[in-house]
Specification:
911 residues; alpha+beta; Neuraminidase; 3 domains; 5-stranded antiparallel beta sheet
Length: 911
């Protein structure tokens, strides 16, 4: 509802409406306390009326409020009054850049200074880990004095629904905001500046802003939109496939600026300008003419001023190159003056399946990592950097999520069986240190004999290394959205430490102390990241380098260990990407300047048939980056979800089971497609697809491929198809995006009835499948505190709409379970337990439902399931129609990704 002049919201009196957009209505108002004019952005009802979204928005707004730059419109606060929530912002007078461009192209002498200021604003935000996500001329104002102000930084993310599983919801700009879905002109205005990865619903990083910056600069110079179309679909297609009309640029556009535009608008992220600061430097040189000179004195001076903190630190680091030390033990280790890279390959015999858990010893001499061999049991393996031998460390069987070294590099701490244990690197029995209240995440061990470790869903804990009871060192702060404190690392004084505040959507490195009460009063938060941190002290100094991962790039930043504060700008050490498709990434650093990192990349899997005793019967097709598969009802064909490229999503392929050949099943090449399920008659398929930067929705298509896919269920939540009812009237699907982790819904396929929830609770329900007679649904739920397999009755009216059930349910698994599958005759229910065993339980349904006692069929190749196993490739499986064989996606363990070691990595910063 529009606000009228004179309306009071707390101390703010509305004077006029000045704008309406997908992010809310904007008003000019007077701050009656400070006697100044401000802008009030009234939040949409979808945000203000949802406590979870509002709390998330407030946390995001607090981060955005830290942006203090002359080219960024400042956020003053959040005002809640009279049932209305509004963001109080700096009032920026003057036209938007869109208004200015509407009058025609902007002359080069005016466009370049404007673009430089835009780049400076982005550079300042990117340094804090904040991405704009919706940069466009309408979000840029130019004051009468020529000062540029960039608006709405990060609000595209802050206003989106909080869905941990939906990267598209987090990374998409305002095109996905419901308030904008009916405003065609505004949608086009946003879509024209979306990067290809945003248009495909993929993960974004700072390079998405670089793309938008290129679009804005092109439009400023040419007066034309770089990627346009009559509809949203045409615009997005142009973004993904087309090239700008470079002939539209003025003839006097300097060659460096033309080259910059082409590099900003590269569709492949790897070839795009990697940092907006590089674009700013190019434009500064073009503006001053320095780009035409062999060396520009002004450029050298500016560069030296920017690199001064790094030059001082690097000089100190290089001063001990060849005389480098490790503080603990006063040892010396020779380090080359230049960085040296080497790789530690994984052996092919025995083949190892590396879990991604590893740590470099403090003296930089040994690498410890967790992996399972042919027996499927995870254990710690050791590799001395001076040796070619990789050996298992006896006594570490069952290692889980924790691995860290003693400060003298003689012992390793790890978790197994719900206990924190320690063991000597020479082997022998492990000693129990303490019981673990939660799953641990990251640990550190100081010279005074104190261990600290983080937790999933808990604070940092401390315990004496000799053994005892773990006690909390920190406390989760609900006001700042903490969901966990993890990955702690001691600083050289052995009293203070750095650790990661995890809010579920973002994180920040913070400081803590053994001497502090767990009330967070002395906590300092800085350096937005989701993975960190490691610290390298510099000899004879109170300064060092803080290492952390940001969007797959390993960053280093000067840090004053005495003042516990950052003292310079971050710089990339390894451009990456380190880690996999998402934000995860792995690295470890010792205190002598040795760095190790590991990127698993895409897991190659093989479709493999097993008999009921676990004997391999044969394979189908070749190796591939498969993510899921669906066997046809008659077992003659299968749909395969296959990753095309690490950052390009998946496609669906149709596999002929008898010949082992596959063809791409044409869906939408511009979208991320996955998880296909078959109709009972084998003539149609339902699949998930993220199109036009939206969430995953459900689409239907005939197997013949003769017709276009048909939208089946579209909404703002994330959806994945689960099962098609045997009568063909209903489809069961997973929905994520509301106030719960995962719910199961049923979509009637006749008469265009609206979907209705089948099971909607505070717990996480998934893996649902209809029984062969359609009367039951088997599924997995964590309502007991761990995943178990259950069965509920199902009935529907003639349209396929489910009828209310009695609430009866039966638990099938006895020791945990996921991924239930019915035998085709309905007499057995199969599932995977949490240790990767294939289990079977007999089922009788008449006169009443009665499950039998689960029995073991065989141990799959997964080994221990653990917290992350349920979503791995080999958790995807299906029984054959006759129930005598079982088809699994088995990850290929040959040729596992190597570890990369960098000696004297600080020297990389000089580049």
């Amino acid at each position: 509802m529009p606000l009228h002049p004179g309306t009071r919201l707390g101390p703010y009196e509305v004077t006029a409406q000045i704008g309406v957009g997908g992010m809310g209505e904007v008003y000019r108002a007077t701050d009656t306390n400070l006697k100044r004019s401000v802008a009030l952005k009234v939040l949409p009802d979808s945000v203000a009326g949802d406590p979870e979204r509002l709390a998330r928005f407030q946390r995001e707004a607090e981060v955005l409020a830290a942006l203090n730059h002359p080219n960024i419109a400042h956020i003053h606060g959040l005002e809640k009054s009279a049932g209305i929530t509004s963001l109080v912002m700096e009032l920026v007078e003057g036209p938007t850049l869109a208004d200015r461009i509407a009058s025609g192209p902007i002359a080069l002498e005016e466009a370049l200074p404007t673009a430089i200021q835009i780049a400076e604003a982005l550079e300042a935000a990117h340094a804090l880990g904040i991405i704009h996500r919706d940069l466009k001329p309408a979000n840029i104002k130019v004051r009468s004095d020529g000062v540029v102000k960039v608006l709405d930084f990060g609000l595209a993310k802050a206003l989106e629904p909080a869905s941990a599983l939906s990267r598209a919801a987090v990374d998409s700009p305002t095109i996905t905001s419901p308030a904008m879905m009916t405003r065609t002109g505004v949608i086009l205005g946003t879509a024209a500046y979306m990067s290809p990865e945003q248009a495909k619903g993929r993960t974004t990083d700072t390079r998405s802003d670089v793309w938008a910056f290129g679009c804005v600069l092109f439009e400023m110079l040419s007066g034309k939109i770089a990627f346009g179309g009559a509809t949203v679909t045409e615009t997005l297609a142009a973004v993904i496939r087309a090239e700008p009309d470079w002939s539209q640029l003025p003839a006097d556009t300097p060659p460096p600026v033309r080259s910059l535009l082409r590099r900003c608008l590269q569709k492949d992220l790897r070839h795009r300008v990697q940092a907006i600061g590089d674009a700013r430097i190019t434009l500064e040189e073009a503006l001053t003419g320095a780009a035409d000179a062999p060396v520009a004195a002004a450029g050298r001076e500016a560069a030296w001023r920017r690199l001064l903190p790094w030059a001082l630190l690097s000089a100190t680091v290089l001063a001990f190159a060849g005389l480098a030390w490790v503080r603990e033990g006063q040892r010396t280790t020779t380090i080359p003056a230049q960085p040296v890279r080497l790789q530690i390959p994984m052996p092919s015999r025995p083949p190892l399946r590396v879990s991604g858990l590893f740590a470099l010893s403090p003296d930089g001499q040994q690498l410890a990592f967790a992996a399972s061999s042919s027996d499927g049991i995870p254990r710690i393996w050791l590799r001395a950097l001076s040796s070619l031998e990789i050996r298992p460390l006896a006594g570490t069987e069952g290692v889980g999520t924790l691995l860290f070294w003693s400060p003298d590099s003689r012992f390793i701490a790890f978790d197994s069986g719900g206990r924190l244990q320690k063991i000597g690197v020479a082997g022998g029995p492990a000693d129990t240190v303490c019981a673990l209240p939660r799953t641990p995440v990251g640990g550190s061990w100081n010279k005074t004999g104190v261990m600290i470790f983080g937790q999933f869903g808990g604070p940092i804990m401390q315990v004496p290394a000799r053994g005892g009871t773990a006690t909390p060192l920190t406390a989760l702060d609900a006001a700042t959205g903490d969901v966990a404190h993890n990955m702690p690392a001691f600083l050289p004084d052995d009293r203070h430490f750095v650790y990661l505040h995890d809010t579920g959507t973002d994180g920040a490195i913070s400081t803590g102390s053994l001497d502090a009460k767990p009330d967070g009063q002395d906590t300092r938060r800085f350096s937005v990241t989701m993975f960190g941190a490691a610290y390298l002290p510099v000899a004879d100094s109170n300064s060092g380098l803080l290492l952390y991962l940001r969007r797959g790039t390993l960053m280093a930043q000067p840090f004053d260990e005495r003042r516990l504060e950052l003292s310079g700008d971050p710089a990339p050490v390894v451009e990456g990407p380190i880690g996999n498709f998402y934000d995860s990434g792995l690295f470890s650093a010792s205190r002598n300047g040795t760095l190790t990192y590991w990127s698993p990349g895409n897991v190659q899997s093989q479709l493999t048939w097993f008999d009921a005793q676990g004997k391999i019967l044969g394979t189908i097709g070749g190796l591939g980056a498969y993510e899921d598969f669906a066997l046809s009802p008659d077992g003659t064909q299968a749909f395969l979800s296959k990753r095309i490229h690490e950052f390009e999503g998946s496609a669906v392929w149709l596999l002929d089971m008898s010949r082992g050949t596959s063809t791409r099943f044409e869906l939408d090449r511009t979208a991320y497609n996955e998880k296909a399920i078959w109709s009972p008659d084998g003539h149609k398929v339902i699949f998930g697809s993220a199109r036009a930067g939206q969430n995953m929705n459900l689409y239907q298509k005939t197997i013949s491929g003769s017709a276009d896919s048909e939208a089946l269920v579209t909404s703002s939540d994330w959806k994945s198809p689960l099962s098609w009812s045997p009568d063909g009237r209903s489809v069961l699907y997973l929905s994520v995006g509301g106030k719960t982790k995962g719910d199961m819904w049923v979509a009637p396929l006749g008469n265009h009835r609206a979907p209705v929830p089948f099971l909607q609770t505070a717990f996480d329900e998934r893996d649902g499948e209809f029984s062969p007679d359609g009367r039951w649904i088997a599924y997995a739920s964590n309502e007991s505190g761990r995943d178990e397999v259950y069965v509920r009755p199902f009935s529907s009216d003639p349209s396929g709409t489910p009828l209310p059930d009695s609430g009866n349910k039966w638990i099938i698994s006895s020791e945990g379970g996921v991924r239930p599958k019915w035998k085709k005759d309905g007499t057995e229910l199969y599932y995977l337990d949490l240790d990767g065993k294939l289990m079977a339980a007999s089922v009788t349904t008449r006169p009443v439902f009665q499950p039998g006692v689960p029995r073991l069929l065989f141990q799959t190749r997964s080994g221990s399931a653990g917290a992350n196993w349920a979503g791995s490739a080999d958790a995807h499986w299906a029984p054959s129609p006759d129930g005598k064989r079982f088809l699994f996606l088995v990850p290929e363990t040959q040729g596992a990704a190597p570890f990369t070691v960098v000696l004297n990595w600080p020297a990389l910063l000089q580049k």
